[in-house]
Amino acid sequence: MIERKRSHAAVITRSGPIDELFAAAARRPELVSFAAGAPDPALLPVESIAGLAAAALDRHGRAALQYGLTGGLPALQELSRKLLSERGIDCATGDIHIATGASGALHNICLATLDRGDVVLVETPTHGPAVTLFRSHGATVIGVECDESGVLPEALDDAIRRHLPAFVYLMPTFHNPTGRTMSAERRARTAEVIRRHRMLAIEDDVYVELRYRGAEVPALTSFVPEFCAYLTSLSKCVAPALRIGITTMPQPLLRDVLVLKQGIDMQTSSLTQALAAEFLGGPERAAHRQRLVEHYAAKLDRLAGALGEHLGPDFRWTVPDGGLFVWVEGPPDFDAGAVLPAALDHGVAYLPGSHFYADGGADRGNTLRLSFSAVPIGDIDRGVAALARVCRP
Amino acid sequence: MIERKRSHAAVITRSGPIDELFAAAARRPELVSFAAGAPDPALLPVESIAGLAAAALDRHGRAALQYGLTGGLPALQELSRKLLSERGIDCATGDIHIATGASGALHNICLATLDRGDVVLVETPTHGPAVTLFRSHGATVIGVECDESGVLPEALDDAIRRHLPAFVYLMPTFHNPTGRTMSAERRARTAEVIRRHRMLAIEDDVYVELRYRGAEVPALTSFVPEFCAYLTSLSKCVAPALRIGITTMPQPLLRDVLVLKQGIDMQTSSLTQALAAEFLGGPERAAHRQRLVEHYAAKLDRLAGALGEHLGPDFRWTVPDGGLFVWVEGPPDFDAGAVLPAALDHGVAYLPGSHFYADGGADRGNTLRLSFSAVPIGDIDRGVAALARVCRP
Asked: What pTM value is reported for the model?
């Protein structure tokens, strides 16, 4: 009788290449891994946390250790409201929900909205684990055509008409995996499509604080708040271990999400919420962000320089305004997946681009994603040189 | 297009009486609330947490703030293995998974095992939120007959034959809501039934450390580990805000659970896991447990005394060997749900027993649950006196 859920078997059995890459990286500390998207350990505020914990316990007392409200710790909800208003999103404190990471929020929304056989529209390419998640909830995932500014509004309009999706999942800012950012004009046109169809759009905005150049663009949600669920997180700009996701969404959806949350994990840790509130409301935040931006911008410059130096003229790559990812496109006959074992032998890891396509990316085998966040800056050149060796056989 | 998941609508719209009770309690600090099951705030180790955080960061460094392994922080997995072996469960460290609370583990197991229309067997009565959870995953929940020692093995055998359930959910120790504990002999016979049917059994064991009298009984899982998922938590014996659930289960199920966990919340907070490891491995643990046991035992004694003094001879109640709940049964014509508004008027809250029956408990309206954990000991007599007034109209 101990048997796997029938409907999940297909998803669960595909463990995928990421685990293997991580396992390989863990076994070989000399490997230059552009595969993982974790923050640079050197930037985690390890010196501050004990102090923040003490301050949080001073401020909230036993409430920081007790069960809490499903919606979130009120102090953190209020600070989050202010954070979102900096991004152009105006909402009430009661419209904010503190989730267990942005991934926790996304899972919860899936649980609230997806019925088996529903369609979810995503960008082409898109965040791979999101596709796995949507499929694990029984959805059919369909990619919508994009250009260097993100999703094409006409293509989105057409796909919505054709597929009547449950929702559209978008990452307009410092997109994972391509690094691109949707312009304000493109956001406005995309918002029009969303409004016209009264379509739920999920805006995944976890990299927004990591801008290295260019002007800030208001969140897509600010253009059409009545139909957007906005997800952001403190994992990239403070620490993943807090597991703090910050989200706002239309009230009817939020109510369902909160009821379901009681059965998922009851509430997000009151303790890490109280810690997060001390950080967001405290004096360190601005300086810490500045440190992150300078540090990652320097790595991106080094990576872009190394790509220019080592990779052949038949390769192209993005140099994003922010975020943690560079997207590389080789000549049509280049196969990033086929070359990966040789790359690992040469001491460099990356994720093949096909991993990021809802349709499997069979015709996009010539792409790959480089994540520079956790690679020590001094290793970048060596890693790219190794990559170049296997890319020019 | 923003619409509620069709299959969840029935579950989501029943917000239930608990939220209203909690809301009422929050508005009226003078209310004696036997309704909530949260730990006594006075027992939360608020003085220790900042020190534990500092020690955890000393020991684990940046790893305590970074993404971690899906299975859990290895140090906490190893301490958890030792904890479970104290309860008669022998397993390898790799068989331990650290979940986001025991509720997080239960949700994850549901996601891994339940298909729409599956049957889940539960005790009669049982933990109400678990029933809601199972239903939200599309299951039909059926209660199995119990006596004062827990589930009746013959009734369980019969129900398994009849309903071919996906799993059986049991709380053998200090059962919520009745407080009863399954004897070792009953566990052995229940384990036989489970083994004979190769049935997955979930043992929910979150109160086990709160034993006030009587000898410890090995976990049901120790009798039949190959078919049991064992869930325990640090919410009752350390702090709910850690959101630390500790679980072991058969490897095939564990593998599915870990793959799904990546889509639920990626991993449980490395920081609260590191804190929990400092607590479990540190010198405070034994004294803290002793303090909890003495404090709650005194409250239970006070409650039992007050019930004897105030309640009429046609009421019966349990005096459990541990845990946080007393189960009260009135005469057949007593209606705990109908009387609740009057009880609130008199300044006392409780949960009507019908809330704990999978079939709605229409014929068990004469029962109610008293949770004594968070009621100040000096308020217990006043609360029971108020209860008695509405129970003897």
From this structure: 0.94
Size of interface A-B (CB pairs under 8 A): 232
Are β-strands A244-248 and A228-233 bridged in parallel, bridged antiparallel, or unpaired?
antiparallel
For residue A393, what are its two tokens? 């056989």
Q: What angle is formed at CA B267 by the lines to CA B264 and CA B269, rounded to 5 degrees? A: 120
Please report the residues numbered 262 through 291 in chain B whose beta carbons come closer than 8 angstroms to any beta carbon of chain A. 262-266, 268-272, 275
Q: Give the class (CATH, top level) of B6-44+286-391.
A: alpha beta
Q: Average of pLDDT values for B253-275?
A: 95
Cis preceding linkage at B129, omega within 30: no
* Annotated domain spans of chain A: 6-44+286-391, 49-282
A263 to B41: CB separation less than 8 angstroms, yes or no: no
Q: Which residue has the tokens 């954990």?
A: B373
The answer to whether the Cβ–Cβ distance between B242 and A269 falls below 8 Å is yes
Residue A58 in 3-state DSSP?
A: helix
Does the beta-carbon distance from A66 to B199 stay under 8 Å?
A: no
Other C-beta atoms within 10 Å of B234: how many? 27
Could you tell me if A44 lies within 8 Å of chain B, comparing CB atoms? yes
By three-state DSSP, how is residue A383 classified?
helix
Between positions 209 and 228 of B, the ones with CB within 8 A of A are 227
Query: B 123-182 residues with CB below 8 A of A?
Result: 129, 132-133, 136, 164-167
**CATH fold group of domain A49-282:** Aspartate Aminotransferase; domain 2 (3.40.640)
Query: How far apart are alpha carbons A257 and A69 in whole angstroms?
Result: 13
Within 8 A of A235 by CB-CB distance, chain B residues are: 67
B13 pLDDT tier (thresholds 50, 70, 90): very low
ipTM of the complex: 0.93
d(C-alpha B189, C-alpha B251), whole Å? 24
> Cβ distance B66 to A44 under 8 Å?
yes
Confidence class for position B15, pLDDT limits 50, 70, 90: very low
Q: Distance from CA of residue B188 to its chain's centroid?
A: 22
Give residues with Cβ within 8 angstroms of A139, minimum separation 6: A110, A114, A117, A118, A119, A120, A166
